[in-house]
Amino acid sequence: MKVARLLGVSALLYGALASSATPVQASEEVATAPTGYIALLLPGQAKAFKPAVDSIRAGVLAAERVHGGGDTPLVRMFDTTDKEEDIREQYLKAVAGGAVSVIGPLTKSAMNFLADSTDLTVPVVGLNGFDQTTLVQSNLYSFGLGIEADAQAMAQLMKLDNQEHPLVLQTNDTTGQRLAQSFADSWLEQTGTKPVIVTIANPKRDAPKLKDQLVENAADSVFLAMDAKSARIVRPFLGNERAVYGTNQINPGRLPSTALIDLTGIKYLDMPWLAYPEQVGFELYNRTRSTSNDLERLFALGVDAWKIAAILAKGGTVERLEGLTGTLTLNSEHIVEREMVERTMGRSAP
Fold first, then answer.
1. Of the candidates 295, 228, 307, which has an alpha carbon nearest to the alpha carbon of residue 262?
2. Domain count of the chain?
3. What's the pTM?
């Protein structure tokens, strides 16, 4: 089952130019060494984002180790703070030093600032999504893991599953509201109708009322715009008469068996790296899996970002690339879209 999903998520990695690139191993190799390099431009000096930084960097370097060589440019790392002016300065330093493509920045605001303030002369694979304020540049690309895209992908899946009257259950927080709004916008675009949205202000208090609300709204399916903690409370009150959907927010990592029982039957989409951990070829990355699925998703993002940057550095394009985060294609708006894997909690989810 194919569901396109774009972009965007999370945040941040590193800065200041590393003291040297990967060393040349022998003088006779100099003549055949690739010209230029891929610059990794992420806020590593921002301590709050160290786990995300480490995961993305590990993915980029793993991809270089497994897939690099030949005429593929090497990776050089440019540490930054989380200040947008510093990110721009390091980008300019990277390009002046010979970068032929760039991975980063990581935040949407940094991407927008860089696009607004700088003429991007080499391909830049930003690790987040575009918004209405993003200045279009021919060398700026969007590749990320945003929760809004997750919700849009689920709306597409539910439409393909022939659901007609979904009830959206959103928690009263930023995550729930962003998921619900993105789902509703996508559903309206696909069907011409707005789904009913019910706010769960207090899951423990409000969940027992949900069966009546499902009947009142003639719902044939449910979309959970919430995280795993809230979904675990709500799911048992929904019964099994209707299909229940969520996003990968409901599967943050190794959950106890009691949680898996509570979440059983929820359909969602995730990346091959998590859906098929034993897939042939994945062992080449020599990755010791984290207990956090969020960090594993960022590792996979790093791997695929390197693949994209390496292709763009050679003047190519992403037509159909089998990646750890999904099957990747590049649309006309320079957004990398992903086809993901359908999963069901309690069956295929670890």
1. 228
2. 1
3. 0.88
| φ, ψ dihedrals at 79, nearest 5° | -75, 140
| Residue 181 belongs to a domain | yes
On whether residue 13 sits in a domain, the answer given is no
Whether 32 is in a domain gets the answer: no
Query: Cα(183)–Cα(198) distance, rounded to whole angstroms?
Result: 13
Q: Report the distance separating Cα 57 and Cα 59, nearest Å.
A: 5
pLDDT digits (tens, 9 = 90+) for 278-303: 999 999 999 999 999 999 999 999 99
Domain residues for the domain of 253 are: 148-269
Dihedral of CA atoms 123, 127, 132, 137 in degrees, nearest 10, equals: 0
242 within some domain: yes
**CATH code of the domain covering residue 157:** 3.40.50.2300
pLDDT at 346: 82
Q: Where are the beta strands (DSSP E) in the chain?
A: 4-5, 15-17, 37-42, 74-79, 99-103, 124-126, 140-142, 166-171, 196-200, 221-225, 243-245, 267-270, 321-322, 327-330, 336-339, 341-344
The encoded tokens of residue 126 equal: 């930003």
Over 80: is that where the pLDDT of 16 sits?
no
- pLDDT, tens digit (0-9, with 9 covering 90-100), for 187-230: 999 999 999 999 999 999 999 999 999 999 999 999 999 999 99
